[in-house]
Amino acid sequence: MKTIRPLLQESRVFVLATSLCLAVSVLAAPVTDPQLEKVVQQGKELFTHNTFNGNGRVCQTCHLSGGLAPGKLPDGKAIPSLANAAAVFPLFKPRQGKVVTLPDQIRNCVGGALEGQAPAYGSDELNALVVYVTSLSQGKAIDMGGKPQ
Ligand code: HEC
How many of the other CB atoms lie within 10 Å of CB of 41? Predict the structure, then answer.
């Protein structure tokens, strides 16, 4: 027993250190420009907290872990993460019969999923959401019309 205990403690420290590293690498937005990073953070705040005067949902209600983890609809149905969303947009949406851009998609989610008031094109709010969602795809190769991850 005496020899097992320190081993167990060591492995606990290892697991903790590894989870901390993982958490930091997932949380840290790989954006170096401080002005840009400021808007990334504003967008993240909107994404995680703003209901846009709708039904009480926020983006993160469905797009889990700030959009980085696979998402879940309120009825439990799985949806892809937003980890490469900015890299696959714009894309053709057969249901809408047209090409949809990232700002279009975000406005659609505010109007539809949140039943809220979608921020105007060119507004600081929509720009911040676009900047935040784009930051999730930092480093991903552009793959317009590709598969979401
Ligand atoms: C009720 C659940 C729900 C909420 C809340 C929601 N969305 Fe979505 N979102 C979806 C679904 C479902 C899709 C994929 C289907 C579609 O609409 O094309 C999607 C797709 C997206 C996509 C495109 C992903 C891709 O790769 O195709 C983006 C970007 C996005 N949402 C951003 C947002 C933002 C930003 C918010 C908050 C303003 C938000 N969503 C709120 C359900 C939601």
Answer: 16
